């Protein structure tokens, strides 16, 4: 089955893989804000010197910022470059998400104090 998508006829299979960049950009920017909130809270409470959470959060900030940048650039580039940048942004986003997940698990089990 084919559909019109931004003036281009596409099949349902290719519709699944199109336009992940806006979703990556939106989600990674939201998680970037959460990381900044966490980092700021640790600094205000004076806990940043006592834990490694701020160091791990800084790594997540870098990963989410790279993901935001690459997904934005993928929306501005031609199709071939766009797919490459989108795929890289997707992998970096998943890495950042994994870093936050591991931090939450370690914090939950009181490994990080």
The coarse silhouette is elongated
Rg calculated over all Cα atoms: 18 Å
The average pLDDT is 83
| Number of separate strands | 2
- Please give the share of residues in helix: over 70%
- Figure out the total of helices: 4
Distance between the ends: 55 Å
Structural class given helices, strands, pairing?
mainly alpha
Give the DSSP E fraction (strand runs of 2 or more residues): 5-15%
State the main characteristics.
single chain; 113 residues; mainly alpha; 4 helices; 7% strand; elongated
Task: Give a brief outline of the structure.
This protein is mostly helical and 113 residues long.
Question: How would you characterize the overall build of this protein?
Answer:
This protein has helices at 12-17, 21-45, 53-76, 79-108; strands spanning 2-5, 8-11. With 113 residues, it is mostly helical. It has one domain (19-108). It has a two-stranded antiparallel sheet. The protein starts with a strand and ends in a 5-residue tail after the last helix. The mean pLDDT is 83.
Q: Would you spell out the secondary-structure blueprint of this structure?
A:
Layout lengths: L1 E4 L2 E4 H6 L3 H25 L7 H24 L2 H30 L5
Helix pairs in contact: 2-3, 2-4, 3-4
